[in-house]
Amino acid sequence: MGALDGQVAVITGASSGIGAATARLFAAEGAALALLDLKPVAGELLGLGTDTGHVTGHVVDVTDAAAVERVMAEVVERHGRIDVLVSAAGILDEVPFLEMTPERFDRTIAVDLRGVFLAARYAAPYMVEAGRGRIINIASQLGIKGGTGLAHYVAAKAGVIGLTKALALELAPKGVLVNAIAPGPIVTPLIDGLSEEWKRSKAAELPLGRFGRPEEVAPTALLLAGSPGGDIYVGQTLGPNSGDVMP
Ligand SMILES: NC(=O)c1ccc[n+]([C@@H]2O[C@H](COP(=O)([O-])OP(=O)(O)OC[C@H]3O[C@@H](n4cnc5c(N)ncnc54)[C@H](O)[C@@H]3O)[C@@H](O)[C@H]2O)c1
């Protein structure tokens, strides 16, 4: 028996990295999945369906409010309900603060913060109606410790942590538990653009001496989504981060 047998999970950013690893783990634990991404979800992920849960793919831009609202309604139409939302869609680019244009700042805030708001905003009503649900927002340790050349990303991720606490307070009495995960550096396409030199020196400063893998983050999402492990987490930010941050 899987930990998520019979549950329906929506995962944004599901085509790659942490979102895709979470999809694989949740499917192995029996969940039905609605996989959302800007890029079409690969056939390998669509083939994760099991006896207890089938998988649907949805191309959507998480910054588009009307599209996110529509896709959540479509998920409920196809799967019957939404038990779990994992918001993993995100972008990262590096630019010194003194060269950062307002447009570049706005773009990162739109995807990394507003996108998390929109997914929760349009998934939560179905959870509240059912009297139960889990929302898991993927933040970043950088939202806690800061980082150079990443003011837009750091602001967005700190915003996700704050948003998570606010939603947690409002929604816990309605049976919906909201938490965040703030990973450390994880080997995914997101960090492809960072230099090898930066990666080497960053790995050397980690107590664990290495970056994490997406498969090492997904089990934290499973903990928060599952029961009884996730039943008393409210507004928390868990840190699978190789020891980089110890709040
Ligand atoms: N990789 C890391 O080191 C790391 C560390 C901490 C936090 N995170 C966070 O984890 C989350 C997942 O990142 P990842 O490392 O798996 O990256 P990734 O690039 O492998 O995956 C991100 C996915 O989000 C999708 N996406 C981007 N913009 C979108 C949009 N507007 N609408 C819908 N989908 C969109 C992309 O197409 C991609 O499939 C992100 O929020 C990221 O900020 C990553």
Automatic annotation (TrEMBL):
UniProt xrefs under PROSITE patterns: ADH_SHORT (PS00061)
Keywords from the named record: Oxidoreductase
UniProt domain Ketoreductase: residue ranges: 7-184
Record Pfam families: adh_short_C2
Signal peptide: none
Coiled-coil residue windows: none
InterPro entries in the record: KR_dom, NAD(P)-bd_dom_sf, Sc_DH/Rdtase_CS, SDR_fam
Entry's family note: Belongs to the short-chain dehydrogenases/reductases (SDR) family.
Protein name as annotated: SDR family oxidoreductase
Organism of derivation: Microbispora maris
Organism phylogeny: Bacteria, Bacillati, Actinomycetota, Actinomycetes, Streptosporangiales
